[in-house]
Specification:
By secondary structure, the protein is of the alpha/beta class. It contains nine helices and 14 strands.
Length: about 300
């Protein structure tokens, strides 16, 4: 029988930043427009990746995880307790990226990939993994930035440090591994995917990780650096919260084209960002640049 050839498949489970879109307690212009139907609602940021379309790796576990799983048949159980979920890879220890782990507590065992810095925060800071271990076996596998890691036949990854000045809520500042991105590689085709939902600045080291990848999913939190300040919703800029804005002479829209990614897709989009609206000038600017805006349920073959 001829062997079926697969490409790595990526599924965007959630495309919004923390709080989703519309955010439950926000009446900003964008949230109001989404509520009126000017854009689809979005759940909080997470993706799933598979090399064989049978076993899936989750990158970050959002608080909306249960609804995301139900919306995607690929993650439905194939027996009474036969789950296609192989493991969870974490980019950091933020609640928006880890609260979904508690929703997996019915698992007999759960494999979690995280850096030592994130693991320490989840055990000793927020206590999330310590709580989860009272419900199921948690197997932690250390993620070392710069080291190649084989996930399954046909799929490997390498984490890389993402420098950030964002205040650590639950633990002391860590020099390395507090925030990482992932570069995943299809070992059969050589196709590469970079997942970078939080980035404050495109340093030379980060540019080298991104350059020439087949698909880049990158932080699209805010359109403007002072977006939340202008709206009176926060006292910090996007950069001060650890996110590179899209617009501006040194924003991601200006910098990314030179890196030659096959596809560039903005994820982790804040509820205030006008790119969430299909007919906005900001969405048009993204489209005209050749880049894309992620939506829940979007699928990409790498």
């Amino acid at each position: 029988m001829r062997r079926t050839e697969f490409r790595v498949l990526l599924r965007v489970l959630g495309s919004a930043a923390g709080g989703g879109s519309p955010q439950w307690n926000c009446g900003c212009q964008v949230c109001a427009a989404v509520r009126s139907g000017a854009g689809p609602p979005r759940t909080q940021s997470s993706i799933a990746v598979s090399a064989d379309h049978r076993r899936w790796f989750l990158l970050n576990a959002s608080p909306d995880l249960r609804a995301q799983f139900e919306a995607f048949p690929g993650l439905h159980p194939r027996g009474q307790r036969a789950t296609p979920l192989e493991a969870v890879l974490l980019t950091d220890a933020e609640l928006d990226h880890t609260l979904g782990l508690l929703l997996l507590r019915e698992a007999r065992a759960l494999r979690v990939y995280a850096t030592p810095a994130a693991h320490k925060t989840l055990c000793d800071g927020s206590g999330l993994l310590s709580t989860l271990r009272h419900y199921c076996t948690v197997e932690w596998r250390a993620v070392i930035p710069g080291a190649d890691l084989s996930l399954t036949d046909g799929l490997s990854c390498r984490a890389f440090d993402v420098p950030t000045a964002k205040r650590a809520r639950f633990a002391a500042e860590a020099d390395h591994g507090r925030v990482v991105g992932y570069r995943l590689t299809d070992e059969r085709s050589g196709g590469t995917l970079v997942y970078l939902p939080a980035v404050q600045a495109l340093t030379p080291a980060l540019r080298a990780e991104i350059e020439g990848c087949g698909c880049l999913l990158i932080d699209g939190t805010c359109w403007r650096d002072d977006e939340l300040v202008r709206l009176g919703l926060a006292g910090k800029t996007a950069r001060e919260m650890g996110h590179l804005p899209i617009d501006g002479p040194d924003g991601s829209l200006a910098q990314l084209p030179s890196l030659g990614a096959g596809r560039t897709i903005f994820v982790h989009i804040n509820n205030t960002n006008p790119i969430l609206l299909a007919d906005s000038p900001e969405r048009r600017a993204v489209r005209e640049s050749g880049m894309e805006v992620a939506a829940d349920g979007m699928e990409v073959q790498v």
